[in-house]
Write a sequence for this structure.
């Protein structure tokens, strides 16, 4: 990229940001869902933003000895210590150790972290474009970040984690 | 071995052998004749003397009888003295005769004579003694006749026997001398005949031997003359060809002289070019020195460039660090925007505008992140280019260093070239001088070759004369062979 192109890109970004505040309030659009495009165990997935409390990048996870293999350890976020579980193990994928993984914090009452490999994007998809959205318990998938991604059901993941923590056998994956 | 003697020696040896044979024959003849004559003389002398002496003894014996008869008749003492003297003479002659070399038969006969003489003397003395005392002549005569005469007869007979013996021996010696003379005569005739035969045989052998040898020598002389004639003819041809070759050599040497002069001129031009080359080499050395100084300056500028490029690399690295910070900020901004979007979504309708702003912030952070990636790529390209430039500059600096070192080598090479060119100049001058000397020498050789060519022509004429002489010699040899061996020499 030439310096002229860089300058043009910077000017475009500045203008778009300014127009955001200068434009009138947008009219209510149709129903849509936001998703995070993530990579878990080398595979693409989508995580619904509405089920998340926070996203943390490359947090240090302190391991706990003698714990369940899903439980990677403890991490600190916004002054709270939350348990961190391996999303790839929860999803039944083989373990790929990552030194400082990305975290998504779920649950506002009993928050816990799910560690994944990388954050690949943020996308907003019309609800009609979400595959399997019409059936309540059917698996869903969305087109995001250049490909079709299965949507991780965080409620099912939370149930599986709780069952593991409580010693019950999990009822199933996503 | 006869072949080692010359013809004169052989002929002289033949005549010498003949002369020796003749001389031997003559010597043998003279010796034989002298021996025969001497033997004959000796025999005749010895036996003649013995016969004469025997005659003398007989005379003395007769005288003794006569003196005894005279005393008997006259009774004169003078007869006794004469008788005694005759006896003494008889004994002396007999003693002289017995002193000679005699045969046993002669000794025996002389002993008988002596015995008879003594018996005759004894008988005579008895008669003389009887005469002295008796005057009767008859008695004396009877006694004489009885005693002396027989003894006297015996003496005479002994002397005659001796004389006859001597005569027989003399005749036998005479016959022997005649036989010796005949033998010597036959020997001389035989020897002379053998000498004549030997001389004839020797003459024949010499004639054949000399004829064969002279014929062989003439044959060889003819063969040698023919070979000499052929060789002389070939020599004449060779000499003619040699004269032609000498003329060609003289022409070639003239061309060689011209070439040597051209070489001398070329050597002079080479010397001039070498001088110019030496000047060029010196100028090249100076140019190399100046270039060395310029390259040294370039090396300093290259060092400055390397320093600046390294500084640029460090600063681009700093820019990369700042870009990392920006990237981190954009990433944090993105996370913050995501979390803001999550909070806005959790706020429902009240957070819709906040969600819009959060979306814009997130998009802006995404674009910033993309731009930082682009800038990172550009900075990486810049750093790679700087690294490549630094490497190329360092390689250039090393090349300049190597070139600087090689400039010394080039300068030394130019100086060596200048020195070698000076050597070349000197060598070219020596070549020029040597070529001039060579030209002079070649001209002298040309003159010598001309002399040799003249000598070859003269040798050609001489060879022709020699050929003519050899031809004549060959004819003479053929004529001589015809003389020595008729029928040969054809």
């Amino acid at each position: 990229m030439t310096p002229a192109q860089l300058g043009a890109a910077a000017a475009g970004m500045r203008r778009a940001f300014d127009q955001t505040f200068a434009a009138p309030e947008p009219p209510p659009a149709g129903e849509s869902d936001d998703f995070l495009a993530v990579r878990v165990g080398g595979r693409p997935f989508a995580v619904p933003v509405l089920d998340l409390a926070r996203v943390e990048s490359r947090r240090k996870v302190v391991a706990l000895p003698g714990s369940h293999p899903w439980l990677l350890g403890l991490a600190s976020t916004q002054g709270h210590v939350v348990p961190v579980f391996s999303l790839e193990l929860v999803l039944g994928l083989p373990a790929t150790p990552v030194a400082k993984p990305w975290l998504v914090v779920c649950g506002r009452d009993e928050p816990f972290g799910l560690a994944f490999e990388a954050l690949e994007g943020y996308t907003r998809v019309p609800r009609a474009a979400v595959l399997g959205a019409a059936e309540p318990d059917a698996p869903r998938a969305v087109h995001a970040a250049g490909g079709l991604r299965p949507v991780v059901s965080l409620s099912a993941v939370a149930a599986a984690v709780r069952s593991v923590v409580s010693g019950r056998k999990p009822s199933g994956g996503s | 071995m006869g072949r080692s003697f010359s013809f004169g020696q052989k002929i002289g040896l033949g005549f010498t052998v003949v002369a020796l044979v003749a001389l031997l024959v003559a010597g043998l003849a003279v010796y034989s004749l002298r021996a025969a004559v001497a033997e004959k003389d000796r025999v005749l002398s010895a036996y003649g003397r013995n016969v004469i002496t025997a005659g003398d003894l007989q005379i003395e014996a007769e005288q003794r009888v006569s003196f005894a008869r005279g005393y008997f008749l006259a009774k004169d003492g003078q007869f006794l003295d004469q008788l005694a003297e005759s006896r003494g003479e008889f004994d002396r002659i007999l003693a002289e005769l017995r002193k000679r070399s005699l045969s046993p038969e002669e000794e025996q006969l002389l002993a008988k004579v002596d015995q008879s003489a003594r018996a005759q003397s004894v008988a005579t003395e008895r008669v003389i003694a009887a005469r002295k005392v008796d005057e009767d002549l008859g008695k004396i005569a009877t006694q004489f006749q009885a005693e002396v005469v027989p003894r006297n007869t015996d003496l005479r007979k002994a002397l005659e026997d001796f004389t006859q013996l001597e005569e027989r021996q003399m005749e036998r010696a005479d016959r022997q001398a005649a036989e010796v003379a005949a033998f010597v005569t036959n020997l001389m005739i035989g020897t002379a005949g053998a000498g004549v035969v030997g001389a004839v045989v020797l003459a024949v052998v010499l004639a054949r031997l000399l004829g064969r040898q002279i014929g062989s020598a003439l044959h060889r002389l003819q063969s040698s003359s023919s070979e000499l004639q052929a060789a002389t003819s070939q020599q004449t041809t060779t000499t003619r060809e040699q004269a032609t070759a000498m003329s060609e050599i003289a022409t070639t040497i003239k061309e060689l002289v011209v070439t040597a002069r051209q070489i001398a001129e070329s050597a002079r031009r080479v010397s001039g070019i070498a001088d110019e080359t030496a000047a060029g080499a010196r100028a090249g050395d100076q140019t190399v020195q100046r270039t060395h100084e310029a390259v040294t300056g370039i090396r300093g500028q290259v060092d400055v460039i390397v320093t600046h490029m390294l500084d640029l690399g460090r600063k681009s690295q700093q820019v990369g660090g700042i870009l990392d910070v920006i990237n981190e900020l954009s990433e944090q901004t993105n996370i913050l925007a995501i979390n803001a979007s999550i909070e806005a979504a959790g706020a429902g309708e009240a957070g819709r505008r906040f969600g819009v702003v959060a979306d814009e912030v997130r998009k802006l952070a995404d674009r910033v992140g993309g731009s930082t990636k682009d800038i990172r790529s550009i900075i990486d390209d810049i750093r790679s280019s700087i690294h490549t430039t630094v490497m190329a500059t360092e390689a250039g600096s090393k090349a300049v260093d190597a070139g600087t070192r090689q400039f010394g080598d080039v300068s030394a090479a130019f100086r060596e070239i200048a020195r070698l060119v000076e050597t070349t100049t000197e060598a070219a001058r020596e070549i020029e001088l040597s070529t001039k000397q060579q030209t002079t020498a070649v001209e002298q050789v040309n003159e010598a070759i001309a002399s040799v060519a003249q000598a070859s022509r003269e040798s050609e004429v001489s060879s022709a004369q020699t050929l003519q002489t050899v031809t004549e010699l060959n004819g003479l040899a053929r004529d001589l062979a015809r003389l020595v061996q008729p029928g040969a020499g054809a």
Observations:
- Chain B touches chain A through 28 residues (CB under 8 Å).
- Helices of chain B lie at 7-74, 77-99, 104-133, 137-347, 352-484.
- The two ends of chain B are 31 Å apart (CA to CA).
